[in-house]
Design brief:
Subcellular location: Cell inner membrane
Structural class: mainly alpha
Protein name: TRAP transporter small permease protein
Function: Part of the tripartite ATP-independent periplasmic (TRAP) transport system.
Family: Belongs to the TRAP transporter small permease family.
Main location: membrane
């Protein structure tokens, strides 16, 4: 499990470096635009592609570390034995959703393999592939978390309806 955490952390770190790159790139683009009237060509494309990487590369580690934002609307009701399955059910539904996202993005990637951006002619497939792989990794994280929540429920002797 520690190797997963290291791999997920490396992806999140890459996400942070890409965010840093976008910040520097945007400042440089603005300076070039207003100081020299020479903005970077295709800066919108670069930013759009980078944003997909920033979000999806960080997703597996965010889920693994439990660092995502959550709202406990049902916390006071979870003392009821019937509702104690809710965290597992939510994790399994999320896993199915992100597995579906990964599958659909892979289909889209395969169907548009030679598609490129308008200005810079950058291929779309590496970015779509990163979205698909990271969505699948996040689905696996959610599966593990759902399974762990089920095990905790049974270990605490709350498996009776």
């Amino acid at each position: 499990m520690q190797s997963f955490e290291r791999a997920f952390r490396a992806l999140a770190l890459a996400s942070g470096f890409i965010l840093l790159f976008v910040m520097v790139y945007t400042v440089a683009d603005v300076l070039m635009r207003y100081a020299f009237n020479r903005p970077f060509s295709g800066s919108v494309e670069v930013t759009e592609f980078a944003m997909s990487l920033i979000v999806f590369l960080a997703l597996p580690y965010t889920g693994w570390a439990g660092a995502h934002i959550s709202v406990d609307l049902f916390e006071k009701y979870l003392d009821r034995p019937a509702l104690r399955l809710l965290p597992s059910v939510i994790a399994f539904i999320g896993a199915a959703l992100f597995a579906l996202i990964a599958w659909r993005v892979m289909l889209e990637t395969a169907a548009t393999l030679h598609q490129t951006s308008n200005m810079l002619r950058m291929p779309h497939y590496p970015f779509r592939l990163a979205v698909a792989v990271c969505s699948l990794l996040f689905a696996l994280v959610l599966l593990v978390q759902g399974w762990q929540a089920l095990r905790r429920r049974h270990e605490h002797g709350t498996h009776h309806p």
